[in-house]
Amino acid sequence: MRGCGFLEDSKAYFMLDFKFKYVEKCWQTKIVDELLELYHNSLNNTCSAYITGSTGLGKSYIAKIITMRMNCYLTFEVNLCSTSYNLMSIYQKYRPTKEKPLVILYDEFDVIIDRIHHENFNNKKFVYEFPKIYDKASYNVFMCETKKCIPNVIWIFTSNKPSQYINEIDPSYLSYHRIDKI
Prior knowledge:
Blueprint: E1 4-6, E2 13-15, H1 26-41, E3 46-52, H2 61-70, E4 73-75, H3 87-94, E5 102-106, H4 109-118, H5 136-149, E6 153-159, H6 163-169
Helix pairs in contact: 1-2
């Protein structure tokens, strides 16, 4: 598998040169094409998607397909409820551009929504850290502001649970201004 490197000091993949073949399923190609169109047509080259389906379907692989097509960065390390791997430090580390964006994959997104909605994180002491997500309101502000203020990012949120599950908790989590494609 020549061309796929793993950075030693990070969990982020860095794709260099693609001399290997990868197989896209038709439904994945459709979603990837739609996401890339959203990305290129947005004001600041940012888009997000909530992708659902059964285990082993290939939801997470969509992020890898985008990374391979665009020869860009893929990270799993952004933790929305911790300050150890915050978005700004990762963003500054890779310095994504329009041509080479940062793809952020967040698997099992329903778990973090459950935590945000039902638990009290007591992370309010991290006032100067980013992200500062500790409840529904802070999540909503974070998602709206990052899409406006942090360019060249493609967010991929995956889950085995359908969007109706999260909408029953609160429809604001997946509203159009936060998630572009469901």
